[in-house]
Amino acid sequence: MQVSLEKFIFGTLITAALLPINVSAAPVNTLGKLPWQGGISAKVSQTLHTDGLGKSAFDIALPAGTPVLAPVDSTVVWSCIAKGTTDHHAIMLQQANSDRKYTLFHVQGNSSNIYKNRNFRAGEQIGVVAADMPKDRNCAVSYGVHLHFGLPTQNEVVDGVSFTKTSPALNTVLTSSNGTATSPQPPQATTFQSPVSKLSVSVPSVDLTIQAKKVSGQKVYWRMYRTAVGNLPARYWQGEQVASSNSLTLPDLDGSGDTLKGVNYYTVASLSPIPKEDVAKMRTSCFASTGGTQLCDRASR
């Protein structure tokens, strides 16, 4: 993702100029719950401003260590770790079943839990409010401990609170109800039923399609491996996604950049977390040998 450095003002006290909008005429959008642990109250420390990813954002003066939760079912589409830190993230997520995106900056979390294509259910913990204050204009800049919350539009209702050009006002106290009640989820299966998997490699991407009985609603984990090629080291990728039907396509597993011609890519899919060493075994099939717990594929272009 190319981001204009001139716009990168994550967490600063600078308010970008905004185009006037007619809030009363704009449709009302909803984005679930406030993105921190339910029952915790905090003040708005900066009103509407534009962040470096173009989102209409508010800063919330939450203390370090406050659990940061997904406001809605979401998928990570981009993240970075601020220079000089090991776990201070800026994250962009996309709301499930829509093209609406929102941002959360100054989130401390393990990179094994925050990565592209990682899915979070509403109320699931992403990380905690970071205690450090990096000055990385390519990722995150902070002059005080807080959570930066960027919204899809300038007219959103979150947890019953209207976020517009004029509200909430500075120092307004907001109380989250996130995580206080969750919808029951179907029990996670451990084996695939009558599965078919296909890995395909094109110039821009590696895509994996899985079809199986009763996989809808299940969380599917995946890992991908490519051996070292020339001066390029071996690479590993991983992710997870909840299937919305009995057919699931996992697109662009390799992220940005073109794939390598004539090089094999290996994948493992499972309904349980996959050990890193499993994908490095470079298997072309594994359903029977694993008792139905894994699907293995190989493909190249």
Automatic annotation (TrEMBL):
InterPro entries, per the entry: Dup_hybrid_motif, M23ase_b-sheet_dom
Every M23ase beta-sheet core domain range: 57-159
Protein name per Swiss-Prot or TrEMBL: Peptidoglycan DD-metalloendopeptidase family protein
Domain of life assignment: Bacteria
Organism: Plectonema cf. radiosum LEGE 06105
